[in-house]
Amino acid sequence: GLDQVGALPDDNFSRSIIEFSKTKDDTTGVELESLPELLKELETQQNGVKISLKKIKLRSEESSYHAFKNEREFSKIKRKAETDIREKITSLKNRFEKYLQEKEATLMHELDQALNEEEFELSQSVIWNQSVMRSIENKEEILEKCNLQSIKSQPKALAYKNVLEEMNNHLTKIGGSISLKTPPKLEVSFKYNQEIEEVFTKPLGVVEANKPGRIIAEDETNLRVELPSAPPFANYPYKNAEYQRTFPTLLPEDNKGYVVGITWIPPDRLVLVDKWNSKLKLYHESGDLFNVMVFSGGEPTDIVYTKCTNFRHFFIVTIPSGRLLLQVAVEDKIMRISSRITTLTGYTSISYDKRCSRLIGGVCQPYGSPRIDIINSNGTVEFTIASDIQQRPYFICPRSIDIFQHGIISGCDWQKNRILFISRDGTIRGSFHGTPDFPLLNPVGTTLDGRDHLLVADCKRNKIHIVSSNGTHLGSYDTAANVDGPREINAISDGNSSKLAVSHGAGFISIYHLTD
């Protein structure tokens, strides 16, 4: 059966068969003596090859079985994915239809409220004009009935003259009133909020076909699975914190207090939360004050920047006593409230996960049991991080929250003097209690440095620690020379450097540049 070996592929195995077929089967007497030993060795080797072939055959049959099974399952998987997409679209249609119906009813009610006074004034104007017409008709009737020829005396004529003069005066007053009573032309318009289109410009979702590994054949007898490589380690932290300036933020009419929240508005503005005076203050990083927003219905406690659209920047501010999250828009030097989110509990700290547009809120007493909630845009809690499997609480007061690029949440508890690092499913990934020389003492503020490292303000130690997402200490910045007791901090980065704002004392803000 080796006369067809010329049809074999051109590889070492095929060439060995060809060479075997061409080799003549004659030998010398000496070789015949060693042949039995050689054949015995070849038999052992041949049996080993047969065993390897059987193993490969079994693995090949198993692979073929799974291939056919996967092929049969493919249509089911695809149909299920199509069904999931259609069901989600239908759910969204129903939800948005209900949402739009509610908004339509709200707008119609607002229209009725806006025009209620105008409708009343118009009806009063019609009634008044009808009375004027009756008065004029009455006077016309008097003039028609009065016959001058019937007047026979001077006193009678003077009396009628007085009637005409008073009538003329009355008509003059009515004429003036008519010009005043004429209602202006009413114009009603609906100012469409184009921000809603920002939602519909975002992708509805992403279809993902997950392939966790791929099989690579190294040779005929060795197969292995190659898994995707791990993501690269984050960049190293900034080496230096260069002090720039300090400016006061308490206004002449303010009571004493301190800043409890900070956010940068790119590229050079800051919004400060002054809880004690119920104010938001918009500053330039140089210390120039642009705008002040005063709250009368509750005290703001924290703030987080969310997005920028059409030259407007947006941030969320918490009002825990009112169970409110307010979205505030900043345009140039002006702040205004753009929307309100009502929640079931009051949040004292807030962060934002831009990957999935979710808010991360921290709860402290007296507003609820200490915990961290993951909240959607409607204010609904999707997941709560509160305690371990033995129901031991993680927090006493999670005063500052941040979220890393890969989804790890950091919760700073100033009463427990520690930072917890938690995945979104509630798994503890690490903790930070300070260093052996400088254990944490009253840590209040945290922020990310722009390179996915956490900065922790250690109020009593006058230090800002640099920590990884698993709690590893990477270094510290010493702020004692310019800052006495760093509290709230916030950083903004352009990739090459970061600017860090630090609150301390009675409303003071210090600016640092973080560089390599």
How would you describe this structure in keywords?
disordered N terminus, four-stranded antiparallel β-sheet, 4 helices, 6-blade_b-propeller_TolB-like, 516 residues, alpha+beta, elongated, Tripartite motif-containing protein 2
Word description of this protein:
The protein has 516 residues and is of the alpha+beta class. Helix content is 31%, strand content 31%. It has helices at 12-22, 29-145, 154-181, 196-200, and strands at 214-219, 222-226, 240-248, 261-265, 269-274, 279-284, 289-294, 302-309, 312-319, 324-331, 334-342, 349-353, 358-363, 371-375, 381-385, 398-403, 409-413, 418-422, 428-432, 443-448, 454-458, 463-467, 473-478, 489-493, 498-504, 508-515. A four-stranded antiparallel β-sheet has the order 3-26-25-24, with no helix packed on it. A four-stranded antiparallel β-sheet has the order 4-5-6-7, with no helix packed on it. A four-stranded antiparallel β-sheet has the order 8-9-10-11, with no helix packed on it. β13 and β14 form a beta hairpin. The protein is elongated and about 180 Å long. Residues 1-6 and 214-234 have low confidence and may be disordered.
